[in-house]
Amino acid sequence: MTAHRLRTIGVRTLQASGALLVAGLMAGCGQAAPAGQAISAPLPQSQPEPPSAVVDQNLPAEQPGTPTTENSAAPPPEAPKPKTDEVTRCHTSMLTGSLQNPDAGAGQRYAELTLTNSSGETCTLYGYGGMQLVDASGRPLPTDAKRTPNPGPSMITLSPGESASATLHWTAVPHEGEPTDGPCAPTAASLQVIPPDETDPLPVTWNGGPVCGFGKIDGTAYHQ
C-alpha cells in the first residue's frame, strides 16, 4: 500500500472518530446528528435579564393606610331618641298653700297640708318638704318635723289649678317637761312650708292650735 493511500485512510479515520464523538454528545442532549453532516457543539445561550423596575421620581410615595375588606361596613345609625315634653319642678313661686281638714280626737290632731299649682304651666312634685312653725312676728317656734313612710315619695304632675297634699299629725297632749296648767306651747300663727327640693319658704296660715311634744309634727310625702 502506498504512502499516499495510508495518509488518506488516516485522515478519514480521524474524521470518523470526531463525528462519532460529536454524535455521542448530541445523543446525550437528546439531539440526533443528521447523517453526512458535520456537527459542531452548540454555544451556551445567555439568559435574558429581567427588566428593571422604573420608578417615577415625580410620583408621591405610597402612604400606608388601614386595610379595608369587602366585609367591612359602617356602624348602623343610632335610633332617634323619642322626644319628651320637659316639665319643670314646682318652684315655691308657682304654689299656694293651705292647711285643710283639721281633725281632732283623743288629743291627736291631723290635717292636710295642701299645695296648689297657681301658675300657668304644668310642674311636678316629688318627695317630702320642710316646715317651720313661726309666731305672728315671724319668730321661729319649736318645730321637730319627722317623715313618715306611708305614703312614700311618688312623682306627681300638677297641671295649673291641681293640688297635692302631705298628711300631718301632731299631738295636743303635753309631754314631760312641758306646761300642764295651760297651753303646752305657744300657738303658731303660720307654718313656713318649703316644697320638695326648694329653699324658699311658702307661708301657710296655721289653724291647728298648739303643737305639744316640743313641736313634733309627723308628715308624709306629697300625694294626690
UniProtKB/TrEMBL annotation:
Short name of one Pfam family: DUF4232
Range of residues in the leader sequence: 1-32
Domain DUF4232: 90-218
Keywords annotated in UniProt: Signal
Residue ranges, annotated region (Disordered): 40-87
Protein name: DUF4232 domain-containing protein
